[in-house]
Write a structure and sequence with these properties.
Layout (H helix, E strand, L loop, with lengths): L3 H5 L10 H11 L5 E7 L11 E4 L4 H9 L1 E2 L2 E2 L2 E5 L7 H20 L10 E7 L10 H14 L5 E5 L7 E4 L2 E5 L8 E3 L18 H8 L10 E3 L1 H4 L8 H12 L6 E5 L4 H16 L4 E5 L3 H6 L9 H4 L11 E4 L4 H13 L4 E5 L1 H4 L4 H16 L4 E5 L9 H23 L7 E4 L1 H11 L4 E9 L3 E6 L9 E4 L8 H9 L4
Parallel strand pairs: 1-5, 1-6, 2-5, 6-13, 7-12, 7-13, 11-12, 14-16, 14-17, 15-16, 17-20
Antiparallel strand pairs: 2-18, 3-4, 8-9, 9-10, 18-19, 19-20
Amino acid sequence: MPLEADVLAAFPAEVQIPARLVADSVAASSEASPRVLVVLDDDPTGTQSVANLPVLTRWEVADFAWAFAYEVDGQRQRAVYVLTNTRSLDPAEAAYRNEEIVRNALAAAAATAGTDEGALRLSFVSRSDSTLRGHYPLEPDVIAATVTAVNGEATDGVVIVPAFPDAGRVTIGGVHYMRGTGADAGTLTPVAETEFARDASFGFANSEMAKYVEEKSQGRFAADSVIVLDLNIIRAGAAAGDPAISAKAIADAIESATDSTPIVADIVTENDFRALALGLEEAESRGKKLLYRVGPPFVRGRIGQEVRTALTSEEAYEGNTPSEAGGLIVVGSHVGVTTRQLNALTEQHSAARIVEIDVEKLLGDNAGEYLDETVGTVVAALHEGDVIVHTSRLLIRTDDAAESLRIARTVSAAVVAVVNRTLKTFPPRFVIAKGGITSSDVAAHGLEIRHAIVRGPMLPGIVSLWEPVDGPAKGIPYIVFAGNVGDDQSLADVTRKLSSTF
């Protein structure tokens, strides 16, 4: 494994860029016609890097109207998240959902034409996994085609930015890496050599992003046709300490993009995100029409939002009175780090009741009866304190991708049923959902959240708190915790902040 310092030695130092510089640039470009990023988030964990933004789990025109009207300190927000959950869908379902969301968003934006500010301009972000899992290139393809069908606007380039430095994912020299932890701190592992590349539904073989694009597009985009914005371009202004030089270099490099040309960006730091944002602003001011396929922190950098410090225990409950019930921690992810986090939590939180959902029983003939028993156990335990509900750690594998998704859906539906029936019987103090598909289904169906506000992170940059603003879970802190982020103690750390018994 290469050392990060050695890989970075070939490139310039980062350019120091305050978030305000990006925010001012975005504001200036929105003066004549306000612009909003519509983020189609293929699981809810994409919100973990932002704060005070609206999030939808439904996408009717009226839902977008609510989100577009949401203001903080009298200002309309620059981005809206839509929880698509498409990573749990097959390609045809994912395509249909992307198209439906884009059409409804554009319709809602068109309806703002008579307002004082004028009609909203929308830019679309296809938010996916920082370890490269998900429906690519299908989702940006569908978004681009739908925009063209609705308003005739063609997409020049698809900007691909999977980096997530807060969680140890960085792109250097066009290669996507995972940072080592513990004894391996300081090292980089190409992402194709990690467990994520062996995903049953979305596996891949290439860490070099241009080759990844060629692999996933089945040769439609050759590797040598991909524009790579490496750190020499992102940090072009380093010698002069001038972000404008970087912005121009990025816009110049994108100039040739046409017909959805893939554009890959190196990112190692928050300053790199901000440099990229300024460059994209410059490119769009020249007339380039861009879509984005990104990891979680891109939106924060793109709109010039400051990095939000982690919420305190008091901030997590601000404006709401916490219930006397225990909290509900739901764990569905099966990646190695989740299992280690679960083990650490159960070892340290001796007061918590542990309820395992046996996946084999869920797939058996008496699944309904088994679910009834599980709900009864959880509700009784919540009267005494926190409850940790997790699926059995034995992952049932199949070589059939469709069958893998079917099993995942069956398990997720059971988890949702447990959460929903528990909520309506004895509402918990808080809910933590661990895992992308798990947290999506728990939000939309288990807690019946339709509209929520992302308040900010529970841990720096990697775990977000949603405040539901409607439905039976209104006022209950909901913690969205990706399966593949954090160290072994992270789940325990978040639970400790929220619990009254830990």
